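Dear colleagues,

As part of the handover before I leave the project, I'm documenting each prediction I ran so the next person doesn't have to rerun anything. This entry is a single chain, and its sequence is reproduced below.
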Amino acid sequence: MTADVLKISTKKTNTQVTIEFSPRILDLIEQTQTGDLAFIVGKKGLPMTKESFGNWFRDTCRAAGVQKSAHGLRKFSATLAAEAGATSHQLMAQFGWVTVKQAEIYTKGADRAHLGKASSRLVEEQIVSKISPHPNLGAGVKAKNSTKSDN
């Protein structure tokens, strides 16, 4: 790890993942108890296994009234990245996935939302330019007479 970049190999796929920490995350790490060579440690200061961490995270979420898990946080992070415009290959690099199939779960949904919004704007532009109202306000509409006749 350099000042703000962490490189690790995933356990499941043995794929290298490179993560850049924001100043905010670095500040949080600085304020948190960590081990010598581990970011996540248990109460005794020893590194946690992924299973122990998953259980601790789930229990902490439940205690806070949140029905989520560490895996749910990972999915949420992938969703945020995809919605911000991350490509399938960027997601693969960040999450250690080795096939595009997993990344496309997130990018397809985000792409559909972005494309739907873009298409809506195109329709609006066409309505404004092709079916716009008459340039003279009130043209074609018979104005009401504000004075009444004596008849």
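The radius of gyration is 28 Å. The mean pLDDT is 83.

All the best with the project,
I.
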